[in-house]
Write a sequence for this structure.
């Protein structure tokens, strides 16, 4: 009736106006007829039939049609309102009959903590259908909710998710931020339902927490594999893919520039970020029988430290990142990123969890290469082969080497030579036969000049290692529980175990889904001078193929490069926009007595000039670490700069390529008469000088004068 009255109020003025117009027209017609001569109507009569009422009938018809239309509209409106009103009343009455049945399943669904948003979404589709009358239902819905409010007093998050207005919010937002605080609060509250929900999830995925060195932080992060999608934040400002040195350096750099930053590291390893160099160096020289469990070792300077960069207390749980007031660094262990949506700024994990990000770093490192003849040899051979890269590989090789009689290392590079020396020391005590074979003529033949490679080979032999040079593997078979390695020149080597140390393959699995470019020559993701691959995506460490302003495009696989590139990527992720100009260094120790540091392009195929001097007791890796106070020498070297190195007056050094004893010295690598690489042989704490020489890129007529800058003759 109200709407009929409204319609009538709108149509009444029109009716009155039309009647007024009719009366005015009648008057005008009368006046006009009085003035016009009599012939005019006669003429009209002859051309038009006489119609009673004249023009006034048209106006009456219009008014009648308007009134009729208004009546029809009012009838239909009243009928529709009555129908909708009845449907709404039926809906409200049906809701009042179901409150208890809906609340019970809501409480039962809490222990898993995963399906909470989904059951509550069931009534939500009914509400959006009539959005307009929703305000009218507020009162009845409030009366229906108090019974539910009494039960979730202990479990507040489920109550919030069960309210009708909140249900569509949870349903609409895929990342489900409201569901994220729910597990966090459940872990904090002591009631019984909470305690029951965690063991059930833990029982489903016990494999996530086997590693003992993982203290509380990592154990909790890997406990709930099923509800991990809820415990992991759906959005993170800084996402770091990979748990190695580059990611850790980037995380520290981000936090240094943005103290409140929230950083999440995702790694497929079960361990917190750790340093890899000790795995092939100091750990093997430890006297602690439990070193494989503690992963603590004594540096060459006698100080003890852990392989982990920071203890578990340094990190926070991933689920707490959203609520941490000052931000923090969380580590999600045992998870692998399998898909990357660059346009949507999100990634997918191997358990189908999706995480969106603002800035992302790819620091996936690499995977050890293997020989194709070993891969084709079958499962029996693969079981007796170690690809050395991770903590688990160190533990496995340590255990194997204590229970076999012979082990063969294939590869003569840094890793192969370091492991050969380490296992050679053990062979003197346990009688283990250690064999090292490689296609070059001497150890590290691709890096060192031939004369220095030969000297290094003799040094490795003195450690108890049997060397087989110019060895090309033709086939590997397993017979009588022994491995037989057939070389192409006919030689046959029998052994119990093989360690393949033949290089590293950069991990670029995300390139396809992310649409990132991979360098065809060096491998790895191609990045610009700021280590950026795409908008909001940076790459650091072994997986980055960067452009060196002095030496061209390169890819470096060393600890110091991971530190420097990770740190720079972290700065650029926070808006620094700095180019990569730093020349990273690398080092290798053949035990505590012989070591070297290198920078730039060190390739034995390049012309070299070596300047040597007699070594003293101070010219050893052990003495160098005692002086610097750190076993990871690049941690101090990367912070140093050399502005104007000063050469001390000393006897002119001689270029020495024929002496049998190379105590200490400097080897220059030349390309077009310009120094592009330098090796400091048992010369330590001089890397800033070498870095400046390469950065200057000048031709040097006499490298003897350049060698004076390193003061190798000062003692």
């Amino acid at each position: 009736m109200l709407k009929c009255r409204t319609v009538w109020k709108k149509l009444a003025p029109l009716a009155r106006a039309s009647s007024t117009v009719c009366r005015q027209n009648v008057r005008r017609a009368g006046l006009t007829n009085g003035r016009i001569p009599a012939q005019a109507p006669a003429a009209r009569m002859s051309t038009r039939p006489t119609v009673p009422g004249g023009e006034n009938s048209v106006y009456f018809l219009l008014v009648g049609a308007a009134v009729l239309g208004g009546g029809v509209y009012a009838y239909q409106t009243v009928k529709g309102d009555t129908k909708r009103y009845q449907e709404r009343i039926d809906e409200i009455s049906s809701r009042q009959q179901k409150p208890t049945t809906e609340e019970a399943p809501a409480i039962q669904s809490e222990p898993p903590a995963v399906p909470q948003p989904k059951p509550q979404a069931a009534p939500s589709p009914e509400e959006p259908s009539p959005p307009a009358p929703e305000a009218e239902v507020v009162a009845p819905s409030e009366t229906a909710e108090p019974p539910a409010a009494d039960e979730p007093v202990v479990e507040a998050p489920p109550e919030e998710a069960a309210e009708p207005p909140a249900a569509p919010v949870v349903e609409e937002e895929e990342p489900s931020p409201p569901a994220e605080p729910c597990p966090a609060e459940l872990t904090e509250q002591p009631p019984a339902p909470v305690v029951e929900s965690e063991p059930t999830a833990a029982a489903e995925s016990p494999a996530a927490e086997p590693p003992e060195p993982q203290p509380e932080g990592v154990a909790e992060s890997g406990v709930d594999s099923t509800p991990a999608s809820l415990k992991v934040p759906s959005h993170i400002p800084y996402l770091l893919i990979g748990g190695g040195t580059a990611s850790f350096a980037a995380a520290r750099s981000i936090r240094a520039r943005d103290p409140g930053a929230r950083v999440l590291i995702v790694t497929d390893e079960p361990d917190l970020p750790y340093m890899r160099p000790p795995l092939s160096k100091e750990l093997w020289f430890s006297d602690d029988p439990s070193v494989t469990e503690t992963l603590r070792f004594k540096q060459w300077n006698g100080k003890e430290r852990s392989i982990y960069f920071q203890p578990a207390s340094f990190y926070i749980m991933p689920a707490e990142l959203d609520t941490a007031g000052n931000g923090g660094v969380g580590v999600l262990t045992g998870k692998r990123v399998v898909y990357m949506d660059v346009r949507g700024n999100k990634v997918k994990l191997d358990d189908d969890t999706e995480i969106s990000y603002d800035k992302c770093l790819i620091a996936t490192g690499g995977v050890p290469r293997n020989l194709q003849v070993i891969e084709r040899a079958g499962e029996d051979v693969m079981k007796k082969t170690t690809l050395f890269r991770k903590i688990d590989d160190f533990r496995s090789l340590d255990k194997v080497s204590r229970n076999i009689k012979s082990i063969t290392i294939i590869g003569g590079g840094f890793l192969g030579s370091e492991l050969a020396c380490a296992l050679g020391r053990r062979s003197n005590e346990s009688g283990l036969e250690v064999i090292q074979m490689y296609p070059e003529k001497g150890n590290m033949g691709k890096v060192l000049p031939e004369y220095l490679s030969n000297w290094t080979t003799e040094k490795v032999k003195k450690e108890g290692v049997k060397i087989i040079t110019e060895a090309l593997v033709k086939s590997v078979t397993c017979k009588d529980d022994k491995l037989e390695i057939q070389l192409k020149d006919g030689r046959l080597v029998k052994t119990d175990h093989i360690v393949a140390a033949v290089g590293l393959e950069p991990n670029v699995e995300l390139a396809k889904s992310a649409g990132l470019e991979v360098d065809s020559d060096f491998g790895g993701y191609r990045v610009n001078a700021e280590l950026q691959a795409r908008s909001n995506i940076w790459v650091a460490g072994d997986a980055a193929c960067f452009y060196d302003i002095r030496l061209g495009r390169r890819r470096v696989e060393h600890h110091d490069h991971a530190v420097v590139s990770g740190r720079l990527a972290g700065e650029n992720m926070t808006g620094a926009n700095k180019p990569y100009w730093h020349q990273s260094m690398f080092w290798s120790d053949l035990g505590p007595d012989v070591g070297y540091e290198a920078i730039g392009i060190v390739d034995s195929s390049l012309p070299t000039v070596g300047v040597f001097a007699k070594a003293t007791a101070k010219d050893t890796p052990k003495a160098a670490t005692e002086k610097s106070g750190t076993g990871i020498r690049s941690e101090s070297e990367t912070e140093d700069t050399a502005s104007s190195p000063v050469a001390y007056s000393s006897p002119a050094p001689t270029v020495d390529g024929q002496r049998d004893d190379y105590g200490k010295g400097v080897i220059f690598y030349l390309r077009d008469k310009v120094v592009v690489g330098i090796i400091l042989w048992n010369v330590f704490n001089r890397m800033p000088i070498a870095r400046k020489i390469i950065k200057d890129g000048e031709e040097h007529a006499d490298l003897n004068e350049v060698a004076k800058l390193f003061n190798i003759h000062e003692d």
Notes: The first helix runs from residue 2 to 35. Residues 36-51, 98-230, 635-659 have pLDDT under 50 and may be disordered. Residues 30 and 36 are 10 Å apart (CA to CA).
